[in-house]
Amino acid sequence: MSGKALDRDTRVRVIQCHQLGLQTKDIVKKTGVSERSIRRLVAKFKASPSAGVPTPSKSTGRPTKISETSLRLMRRSVDITPTLTARKLKEENPQLLGKVTVRTVSGALHRRLGFTKVSARRKPALNEKQRKSRKAFAKKYLNWPLEKWRSVLWTDESSFLVSDNKGKKVWVRKGIDRDDPKYCALTIKHPASLMVWGGFGYGGKGPLVILPKNVMVNQQVYLKILENNLGECFANSGAEILQQDGAPAHRANSVKKWLQENEIDYITDWPSNSPDINPIENLWGLLKRELREKDTSTVEKLETELRAAWDKIPDTTLQNLADSVPTRLTKIRKTGLSSHK
Fold first, then answer.
1. Which of 226, 61, 257 is nearest to 153 (CA)?
2. Which residue has the higher pLDDT, 97 or 335?
């Protein structure tokens, strides 16, 4: 790959390999770049790491319009305020960016600094009392060894909507009528939904309980779920401790009495507004992503696809999620904020 300047994607791969601690010879194998070029690129990066991925020494095209000084300012600004737009960045720095277009600023953020625009992740809004409660919970349970977390059965409910997604994608080309019915999927104005309950542990998962249409989870319904399914969940997962959140149905006196009578150990002080600590939330997200490519246009089809997706969740996924709890608690102990990655 000698004799011409490395393209940006190749330079990014080389720097990423370097940051991961790979030796030069290993980077050669992964990227096909010569040792000499790798050493030069890494040396330039070490000399000015804040400027991002080094640009070629000799440009073969149009000279860059944004200086290294401007790039460093842009990086700092966006690191501090991730919601900053390219237009706002240009307006707030007229001396450095006043002579370039918004498009140029946006392109530099993406191609030269490696930023990508993504949707902000949704995380629970927490008041001060909830933050303190979460930090106290994290402090208390960080003392648990990993083996004890592996004995927890993680449970919760979730809802899934009947979708207008019929699991199909279509080929389109320039000039076609996108409103032609053959290129469209019909939307559902007020979609039906299914409420489900599930539980998993390090050693496996229980059955996915799908509630009848229009049935809400109150204490009577929840008790019936536990009576009919908790034993199988414990048996399949090898778990010994029940986790449930503080939903009214879960903390009803009748439920507490049943758990006590059946000598079921459970976490009694789960903090409110803390779905991010419970790794089963990741399973619900996994199922919803899986269903995007499936035909879930009727309640019956949704139920079929849900059960199939639940059944094929690999054991390694369950194990990794169960083992992620200490890391979540470590993050929460520092700030009380969300632990989601």
1. 226
2. 97
